[in-house]
Amino acid sequence: MLDLVKKYNIPTPRYTSYPTVPYWENNLNEESWKIKIKQAFKLFNKDGISIYIHLPFCESLCTYCACNTRITVNHAVETKYIQALLKEWKLYLNEFEGKPLIKELHLGGGTPTFFSPENLKYLISSLLANAELAEEFDFSFEGHPDNTSFEHLKTLFELGFKRLSLGIQDFDIKVQSAINRFQKFETVENLIHTARGIGYTSINLDIIYGLPFQTEMSIFDTFSKVKLLMPDRIAFYSYAHVPWLKPGQRKYSELDLPADEDKKKLYKIGMEILNDAGYKDIGFDHFALPNDALYIASESKTLHRNFMGYTTNKTKMLIGLGCSSISDLWDAFGQNIKTVEEYQDSVNAGKFAISKGHILNTEDLTIRQHILNLMCLQQTNIDNYFYEAEERLSELFDDKLIEIIDESILVNNTGKLFLRNICLAYDLRYWKKVPQKAVFSSSS
Fold first, then answer.
1. CA distances (Å), origin 294, targets 203, 234, 289, 300, 382
2. Per mean pLDDT, which of 129-133, 243-247, 406-410 is the most reliable?
3. Contact 203/231 with Cβ under 8 angstroms?
4. How do residues 294-338 score in pLDDT, each as one tens digit?
5. Euclidean distance between CA atoms 12 and 419, whole angstroms
6. Interval 183-219: pLDDT, tens
7. How is residue 114 annotated by DSSP?
8. Helices 77-95 and 30-44 meet at what angle, rounded to 10?
9. DSSP code at position 378
10. pLDDT tens per residue, range 411-427
């Protein structure tokens, strides 16, 4: 197994979209975006839409983080940003022909709990005032263990939030010092206990392997503590070292990172503990307990994947609000301006803040469906695109990661570890223009 991990440890996209962002053609403008919004709303609102809200502010920089963030201790920024978010939402409402039916809403960042409970209540209640909720809606948010208060938990729960995600990464103090992300086990334990007492039904923890100064002992200790907490879901994924994109990662060097062979051992230790604790492998670094909705969706073949990652809500329209957020209208993508001030200036001027985008052609839509099938169902049908990818898939067949059964490609249990590599074989835009410099993080 370690030989396979080493062999397939190459830079690959994470496939939260197809085409991936570096291959977008930027072939839309303000008017074409409005047209696409109207078309998508007519087609998909009846089944419910998803909303992602990017709240970029953090009080300190986590050096491992590759997200779009703004570091500040000035909480006066909250009000102006919330006003801009609501103005952007109004721009979308102006294009909708009717009330949006919200099925899924997620607060990401940054640190959403940087915002006060009162401001989050104002934001969410204002957004929902002009919308309807699906019968089974799903609201979730990301919280930092050191600043997520009882009032945050209580206020958001009363607004309909039932799922909480905490970025733990590692409990070892040396690792925490290197990545500038501090939280004690007791703090996390108390927070989870409080959330469950309030009524939260799903807790997710993010754990990263491959961080600076991680050892077999530290990852074993981290997972031993995680096992005591028994979160409903766990995202256990490889550290993406992209210092050319995120200069904060230059706080440490490649020499401080576990060597490839050591990194694989860290993953193996985590996997063994998860298996022993009863977690099920969803695929692509995600694990869930058997009674969690994510595993149930995986087993019932209703799992979906979008810019927020794996989700149980199979929506085809995702509206991204806030700087750097990405919207998905199924046959069109649009990403907002990344800087806070420029984003705010754009929406305050009554303009969509889209900085780049892509209108999908017929080939894009077909490949997109194949990649979604592989990511969510671990299988896809054989058609003409299979024969275009056949040479690239041949090695995966030889290594017994995929097989053909009843005119379909099936990913086996071992192959789940290499979903990014399998999807890469289908990525025609990538193979038509292979990057000549570092663009994507390594797959493991």
1. 12, 11, 9, 10, 27
2. 129-133
3. yes
4. 999 999 999 999 888 889 988 999 999 999 999 999 999 999 999
5. 10
6. 899 999 999 999 999 999 999 999 999 999 999 999 9
7. G
8. 70
9. S
10. 998 888 889 999 999 99
Domains and CATH numbers, the chain: 9-359 (3.80.30.20), 362-432 (1.10.10.920)
What are the CA-CA distances from residue 414 to residues 2, 4, 5, 99, 307 (Å)?
11, 10, 10, 45, 25
Our CA dihedral for 270, 271, 275, 281, rounded to 10 degrees, sits at 130
Residue of 314, 313, 428 lying closest to 370 (CA atoms)? 428
Calculate ∠ Cα 402-404-405, nearest 5°.
125
The two tokens of residue 209 are 């392997």
Angle subtended at Cα 46 by Cα 40 and Cα 52, rounded to the nearest 5 degrees: 60
pLDDT-derived band at 165, boundaries 50, 70, 90:
very high
Please report where in the chains the tokens 């996390």 appear, as a residue.
Answer: 188
- Rounded to the nearest 5 percent, the helix, strand and coil shares of the chain are 45, 20, 35
> In this structure, what token pair is assigned to residue 311?
């989700």
Both tokens assigned to 51: 């909303």
| Side-chain-facing half-sphere of 99: CA atoms under 13 Å | 11
Per-residue model confidence (pLDDT) at position 52? 97
Residue indicated by tokens 């703090």: 187
349 CB contacts (<8 Å, ≥6 apart)?
A: none
* Prediction pTM value: 0.93
| Residues 170 and 214 sit within 8 Å (Cβ to Cβ) | yes
Q: Each residue of 110-143: pLDDT tens digit?
A: 999 999 999 999 999 999 999 999 999 999 999 9
Q: Where are any strands of DSSP class E within 289-432?
A: 304-306, 309-311, 318-321, 326-328, 332-336, 354-359, 379-381, 402-405, 408-411
CB 45 within 8 A of CB 319: no
The residue count for the chain:
444
